[in-house]
Amino acid sequence: MSETAALAELAKRRGFFFASNGAYGGTAGFYTYGPEGAALKRNLEDAWRDLFVRELGNVELEAPTVMPEAVFEASGHLDGFDDMIVECAECGATHRADHLVEDAVADIEDAEALGTERVGELVAEHDIACPSCGAALAEEPIEAFNLMFGTNIGPGSASPGYLRPETAQGIFVEFPRLKEYARNQLPFGVAQIGRAYRNEISPRRALVRVREFTQAELEHFIDPERDAPPLERIADVEVPLYSASAQNAADGGVETHTVRSALEAGLLESEWVAYYLGRSMAFYERIGIDMDRFRYRQHLAGERAHYAADCWDAETELGGNWIEVTGFAYRSDYDLSKHGEHSEDSFTLFRQYDEPKTLDGGSYTIPVEATGFDVEERTEAGEHIIPHVVEPSFGVDRLVYSVLIHALETDTVDGEERSFLELPASMAPTTVAVFPLMTKDGLDDRARSIAGRLRAEGFEVSYDDTGNIGRRYRRQDEVGTPYCVTVDYETQEDDTVTIRERDSTAQTRVSTAELPEAIRRLVDGETLSAL
Ligand code: GAP
Q1: Beta carbons of 46 and 32 less than 8 angstroms apart
Q2: Does ligand 1 have an atom closer than 6 angstroms to the CB of 213?
Q3: Predicted TM-score (pTM) of this structure
Q4: How many H helices and E strands in the chain?
Q5: How far is the CA of 77 from the centre of ligand 1 (A)?
Q6: What would the DSSP string read from start to end of 255-280?
Q7: What is residue 354's predicted lDDT score, i.e. its pLDDT?
Q8: Closest atom of ligand 1 relative to the 325 alpha carbon
Q9: What proportion of the chain, given as a percentage, has pLDDT over 70?
Q10: 108 pLDDT band (50/70/90 cuts)?
Q11: Cα–Cα distance between 428 and 286 in angstroms, integer?
Q12: Which residues on neighbouring strands pair with residue 411, listed in sequence order?
């Protein structure tokens, strides 16, 4: 079984995620997180908050998911947020034309960048057929399909609205209020974790391409002439870069550079994008991405979004495919300029000059008395500028999916094959599972009381007394619980319990008094033998 198929099976059986509305035949492109998946997603979002909001001194907001049409007229989404669709004349199925080309032509990884016309030619040249019924698609037109979900705000159709296709717009439209909150001082960062909606033509690969998903976005507003990122903090971080030129070269591949050397070599154009590529490495490592299956890929010329000046994607390898999990874009002043042009509000910010400037009123050659103009000398303290935006935009669902696929392992324990999730302890839905050896002689009461104490200490704890111990270990292994604690008859004699480690399956005994501290040390990275 492929790793993606194995994960899909485990995810459904163990309550990580499954297709939504199964009772009604399912709805393509919508997934429900079960209890284990919801907990893992929450842990991942908390790690993101920690690194991109709290540690950087940024702030977080929560905006509505429905926004009026005027917002998307201004942002460009109404005109430009399209994918290429081809409809089969035989069975009526619709498909993403660029994906059909990528699937059919071995050396084309990003057909979207080629444009509609070329994709149409490739469909014909390669005799691409409808995946649903097998009919030829060569004669079918390739059209642009807008991905936004439309709705009406209130009864009637007088006030059209859309479900936001990116959380970013909820931040941009509030810039006039946010700049005041930031006391009109650049730079400042505003983050948001929330739902985004795209009416994808062909949702696929489980959580990879869905119609409702979660983004964690940071919009960093900067003065392009004055603000520089704190590069010294990440200059020595190594980043695996798959540059546009490497993608275009026959023998090009990923090259690992420090952020500093990549900037010096001109591989990274924007210092701000470079800063976030470096900073994000710690995040991917913390959440459990296998860094041997990770790279940063630069956008090719035809691939950049309508707003992006410089763009890199973080990609993870899943089942042999490279999948974008984060987009890093230098959005320049595109968004704030557009909202400034389309609305009545002010999307500029006052930049104070270091020294006041005296303006002499300009030159003239006719006597001023003859014109009736006044010539004045003015002293200006500053000028109004439109801030630029640097945006790291993380797809939470794709990250959850990548973490799960990269964590899925199998080995042999006591002659039996075992599958387990090698999740970092801080990501695992449950940190410690507590079992009584038997549900008699007071062992279960003791185990419940230990579980309660660990909960009170702040751990995510699960109590399980069903089935034999071996089965209980397997259950916890499959949901990635790093530690299991067993209460047995020895506990009643000497007040000790066994702690069993998920990955090595090694066990040791500790006293119940020391148990919370022992778990804490293990979560912080100590090994069982050090206890
Ligand atoms: N504000 C910028 C923006 O939205 P994007 O590259 O279109 O940029 C950012 O999206 C991230 O959102 C992607 O890197 C991806 O992880 C996630 N994403 C986009 N479309 C998605 C979909 N249909 N299903 C799941 N995740 C998606």
Answers
A1: no
A2: yes
A3: 0.94
A4: 18, 26
A5: 14
A6: EEEEHHHHHHTTSS--HHHHHHHHHH
A7: 84
A8: 16
A9: 97
A10: confident
A11: 12
A12: 418
